[in-house]
Predict the structure.
Amino acid sequence: MSTPQRRTIEPTEADLNIRSCIDEFESFTVIAGAGSGKTTSLVLTLGYVREKYGSALRREGQQIACITFTNRGVGVISERLGWDDLYEISTLHSFLWSQIKRFSTDIRNCLADVIIPTELKKQREKDTGKDTKSARDARAKVEKYEDILAKIDSVDEFKYDSLSSFSNYLKGELSHDDVISISGHLISNNRLLQKVIGQRYPYMFIDEAQDTFGEIVEALNTVCSSKGLPLIGYFGDPMQQIYDRGMGNFAGPKGSFVIRKRENYRCCPEVINLLNRYRKDIEQIPSGENAKVKGSVRLSLVQAEKPEAPRNKYSDEQLDRVAIKYDKVIKDIGWHDRKDVKHLFLVRQMIARRLGFENLHRLFTGEFSSTYSQDTYESGEHYLLRPFTQIIIPLIEAHTARNTTQALSILKQNSPAFDPDGKNSSKSIKKMIELAKTSMETLYELWEGKTLKEVLKFALDNKLIGLSERLLEDIEREPINIEFSKEVHQSEKGKWLAESFFSMNTSELPNYYHFINDNTPFSTQHGVKGEEYPNVVAVFDDIEAAWNQYSFTKTLSPQVYGQGTDGQLSRTSKLAYVCFSRAEVNLNVILFTRSPELTKQEVVNSGLFLEDQISVVQ
Ligand SMILES: Nc1ncnc2c1ncn2[C@@H]1O[C@H](COP(=O)(O)OP(=O)(O)OP(=O)(O)O)[C@@H](O)[C@H]1O
């Protein structure tokens, strides 16, 4: 998702084909490589439908639906279209939930007839009858789901909170996964729902279709299966499917049109040449101003060490040495003090280490953390972190910059004590400014030397942050003096997480905060989908990654390293393609390998990189 466009973009041949489909009421799929302007075509298409059919749609109270991958995507597309409410631009989960949430009876039936029986079947199959942990767990789950099934009729309403990855059916709470499976099932099988969606959204468009769940593609295709409106348009690239849940080779309803694009408007010719050598199914042509840009592609093959820590991991000393080597390569390239370089790592751990929030990272990915904790840590939404990411750190930064106006504005927007309609609203502005100043000074003093618990307690006591029951419960709890046991305390491990978090000092939080707000030169490789940067470093180190789901050495140098599994190769080659294709001008690939010279020979022989693009670093 590149930044909002300022220049006028001329429609391409593909855009004209899309318009013909729209005018003929035909569904279509746009399949094209990276940088070919799929998102741009999507925005042009949305604009075209508004221009031609917008007033009729408004008259009928209908909307144009556009589903995109991230909240950031929603923001970028909405902005390009002037935040017009003719469009329903949303993420997949939010779109689907808004379609099904009124259908409580159908949701309940779907749980009772499909979702819970499927889960029961799965768990019964896992129960071998033996006294092993997995069999005992399976039996416990069978019991739990049987109980839910017996009581589900008593649930009248269902809710979905986008921040929660848990379900609690008897409380009516659905998880992310439930929203997908229930929507897929209901839309595919409920004619009324199909009709309601089709009437409300005669035009539906899906961005990043390769990462959309297969059952949802099928369900939406069912809505648009007849001739005429509603129609659906998919935009995607199977080679950029970087999440396993995605469909990869998506297709529109039977008989829909396939539109291809061969242009690449993003990358310089050197990068496009690499993409063309890497990917055989499509040959891209440099097509816009980028065709005139002189850029570069370089591959540094860095001598990797044999991992010394258990489970094939680097020891701490090795990690330090890897970081030193990495910095040396960046210095040799001449990019060490450049601000316009994006460094792409597979895992957050390496970024946390480099940016200085490793302890925080370890805590939220360690034994006290759940999937929920990890996901919300990654997005900055965890209930322990949110007061810091939304209020306290911005306040500290405004205070450090001596920007009182900004500090006041943060307080007014977020703090109950400064709410213009709150209990201090009758106080004079002068008094409020004084209150803000003294609060800020004390907060800053605590920030400099105290623990996170003390900072939070002050912010809560002085109503600088809103009250969250969960947070309050954690803060008020007596310290736990029992050693954590995975077997015994699994369901209450959040208590240990909170206590460890509270005892930390504040030093790592700003680094984490800047990373999640994308204010650092680092990003994860998955996180840059849809983005573009002038200068990119893509770092590939199988050991750092320590995930056998990925193997960059086996993908780029199979003769030296052996053949990876199909899953490894498919995942890795797609992720590497996404990384390579983010670069507008200069791309530096850094591959850690135990055999740099042999790898060099192989990638030169295979024609992937040219000899003069490669350097070996011992
Ligand atoms: N028709 C066009 N003329 C000129 N520039 C274009 C055109 N279409 C797209 N671009 C520019 O090319 C770049 C890539 O476009 P866009 O992000 O839409 O591609 P994409 O196919 O969605 O990429 P990816 O699949 O890699 O995320 C952007 O900077 C965009 O402004």
Remarks:
- The mean pLDDT is 92.
- Residues 361-515 form one domain.
- Residues 300 and 615 are 5 Å apart (CA to CA).
- The pocket of adenosine-5'-triphosphate is lined by residues 2, 5, 9-10, 12, 34-40, 237, 240, 265-266, 288, 530, 532, 581 (CB under 6 Å).
